[in-house]
Amino acid sequence: LRWYVTPFVWPRYIKRVWDAQGFDLLRAHSVRYVGPAALWARRHYRLPVPVVTHHHHLDPSPLNPFIEKRVIEASDCVVTDSHFAKRQLADELGVRTDHVQVVYCGVASRYAPGPRDEALARRWNIAGKRVLLSLGPLIARKNPMLLVETFAEIRRAAGEDVCLVWVGSGPLREKVGALIRQLGLEGSVILTGYLPEVDKIPMLNLADVFVFPSLLEGFPLAPQEAMSCGKPVVAFRVASLGEMVEDGATGFLVEANDRAAFADRVVRLLREPELCARFGAASAERVDRQFRWDLTVRRVQKVYQETVDGFRRAR
């Protein structure tokens, strides 16, 4: 449901669940889409439970001070997935953050290094090529136009056996396709569109380097999943990427929109297979140590329990 519809629909449903079986905690999985409905339900029906709101990141919007700010301030606890997102709340909304807890998102253990799926490589005409891979919707903040322009420089420096594969679709697809043709990169840049889930991990394991030009992320899953499959990541030093990618150890981070530096780091990894392999192994180890789902589950459960206990003590 659209965010402006949920306050008229969900509170009655929440009350129905409360009357039928009760619950200890009311979780809003989105600040704008669910937060107002959850808070209104608690207030209107006088539900004796805490509200925990989950927050990813703030997209630019003139409504943020009127919706996001009020929901964050009224929630008993806020769970967000990066220290960047927590700072964003304080810096852009001016809210208190003593009730904001950071819990990193996780990666399933099935994301693991594996052999190349040559049939998949042939399907996309990338067999025998060195592969730069990116995953995500073709939208402005994911920066696909800049990546295609940068790839033209990478290909000139690293050789014609390098290709770029972008998995995902979106409103910029036609514009990106036009840029590919303009730069003469047909056949070297592949836009797969939607990729079935069964092909996702095999596609990650076809990559040599995962490239991620995004400019705004709460805590993105795509580079995490690539790291879990033993791939080095090249990204911009923006938002939460510095909390995920260890510059000079699991990949490289460069300043935002610095095409020359981005291309230079990718070319270096392509030219130095030993460095690429070392960064990839370190990436997989870092995910095992910090970003598995079982860790996320335990941390979220701890936050929920502490919130419920604190709310009951206060009552």
Could you characterize the architecture of this molecule?
Helix 1 (6-20) packs across helix 2 (35-45). The strands form two sheets. A six-stranded parallel sheet has the order 7-6-5-8-9-10, sandwiched between helices. The protein has 13 helices and ten strands. The protein has helices at residues 6-20, 35-45, 68-74, 83-93, 118-123, 144-158, 173-182, 197-204, 221-228, 241-244, 259-271, 273-290, 293-314, and strands at residues 26-28, 51-55, 77-80, 100-102, 130-135, 162-167, 189-193, 209-212, 233-236, 251-254. The protein has 315 residues and is an alpha/beta fold.
Task: Record the SSE blueprint.
Blueprint (H helix, E strand, L loop, with lengths): L5 H15 L5 E3 L6 H11 L5 E5 L12 H7 L2 E4 L2 H11 L6 E3 L15 H6 L6 E6 L8 H15 L3 E6 L5 H10 L6 E5 L3 H8 L4 E4 L8 H8 L4 E4 L4 H4 L6 E4 L4 H13 L1 H18 L2 H22 L1
Parallel strand pairs: 1-2, 2-3, 3-4, 5-6, 5-8, 6-7, 8-9, 9-10
Helix pairs in contact: 1-2, 6-7, 6-11, 9-12
